[in-house]
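queue> holo job accepted (heme C)
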Amino acid sequence: MGTMRLNLMGIAGAILSCSFAVGSLAATYPKVPNPSAKYPSGELGKMVKLGEDIIMHTNTNPLTKDLVGNKLTCTNCHLNGGKTKALGTFIGTALSFPAYSKREKTVQTLQDRINNCFMRSMDGKRPIIDTKASIAMAAYVTWLSEGLPIKMNPKKPVNPYYTNLWPNKKLNPVIKSATHKNYVRGKGIYESRCSSCHGADGQGVGSFPPLWGKNSYNSGAGMSKIGKMATWVLYNMPLGNTNLSEKDAVDVSIYVDAQPHSDFELTEHLLPRSEMGYYNSKVLHERHNVRSNFAKPWGLDIDAIRGDHKIK
Ligand code: HEC
Ligand code: HEC
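queue> job finished
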């Protein structure tokens, strides 16, 4: 894996129009088998299926719906419930846990990692560790790596197969030097390539999910960080037709992440101490908003980026 293959993929994607698109992860993903179509037998199989149902229908499954604060489900970003070898796949994810996380400054279990997404991407509350929902999701994600060798990842709590791809550091210089022009260009890309499915107002259309506002991810989510979003978009969107250039992906991500996203205040997403039990983190205060996500680490001023379109 690594940059050379990525470059080749970029060049080939630009020249060939049909064999594979610029944003295909399949071209770089190691040859790991597709997940087995067979669930484990007995009670374990039931848990795996339950976990799959929660990941596909997080905001309607009775065990998790009250913990979700927006209109998203895990599968909106971990495509096909993480079964597709797209960036964000869960094939391989379980291999790297327990793993150290700089964000929480502790070694995190797979349950921790999964449950923390509820506070950010799902703008809700963190499920209690070892509850049925929490175990079921971990069982499902683990099942998707069955047969693959454990690979401890001392760098970060991310799937070892794409830890070097995400976020794509090649995009950093473009982000750092962004101006209002990138925002305007991003708006144009949004209108021509995204709004048919995500709505002119970013609120989604039918089952196509919203990209900003109260029904979307909050400013503590991975997707609200321009570099992560641009990498994800480069590989995954527009759905079924991933052919954005790196600059397109950056500009459209700047546009989307510059729209309103709820402020993130960690303590608001934790259940009361008496209910939550042990919280495996040394970091108990964390705040983000759209402004701080542009300022750090990019040094960008949201007002200058948006021009006269001021937000708080
Ligand atoms: C709005 C998009 C979005 C949604 C919704 C979302 N995630 Fe994620 N998820 C991400 C991004 C982006 C990353 C990686 C970036 C990072 O490190 O923060 C990630 C990382 C992860 C990881 C780390 C493992 C790896 O291999 O990278 C796990 C596990 C995970 N998510 C589980 C979930 C679960 C379970 C849900 C539903 C409860 C969920 N996510 C919902 C965007 C999302
Ligand atoms: C053909 C319809 C379609 C187009 C065009 C499209 N998307 Fe999506 N997008 C989807 C669907 C559907 C999902 C959710 C995937 C799922 O649930 O299987 C999604 C998910 C997403 C997500 C993660 C979930 C969320 O709501 O935050 C982001 C971010 C995103 N799209 C950005 C974009 C951007 C940027 C563009 C334009 C460059 C784009 N999409 C174009 C259909 C589309």
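queue> The chain has three domains: 1-26, 32-143, 169-306.
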